[in-house]
TrEMBL record:
<protein>
    <recommendedName>
        <fullName>DUF4913 domain-containing protein</fullName>
    </recommendedName>
</protein>
Amino acid sequence: MTERILGRFPEPPKDVRYIMLLLDQAKSPDPEEQEQAEIGADDAFSCKVVDLPRPWDPAELPPQVRQEYWLWLDDVALWVNHTYGWRPAEQVPACWPQHPWLVTELATLAMARWVAFRDASPMPAEEWHQWSMPRFVDRLTQRMGTESATQCTKGRHAPWPGESRAMATTAAADDRQQLFADDVTAGHSPAVKAAVPATTPARH
């Protein structure tokens, strides 16, 4: 059986494509298209265009959109690995949903690719190849290349090395909030007041 030389980039879910259409219409100089964008945003998402979720920021997407979005992003990860992952270290690990930084990186890469290759000119696609994809790989190999993350690149998710420190930072939130409150209510400290002369010295 013959295979295609190059697999097609996965098409984003319908809701994501519609959001991108509304955002494009909102940028149009044509008032009618801007009005259509506002109507579409209100009908589909009960919000103004300016408040539409950006598909490159998955945390902002409503649950009904995320359900299909995650499946699409997983297909994108597979496509990236088969198309660009020549070396194992350059491939998106199977546990990518367990790495928040990688989720946001992959989402931005995927949406940038979709937008670039739909342009009427090849230049956005060239820029994606020249900047977006190589820099994504650089950041991927830099973070996943650490000793603690080598398990992930081999298909076995490694625990988060910085989890204990992050948990300690979260646990100390009340202490920080108290410091912030004390700072606001304290006004100027005596040390600051002492540094300001009461009168201006006479010039000789």
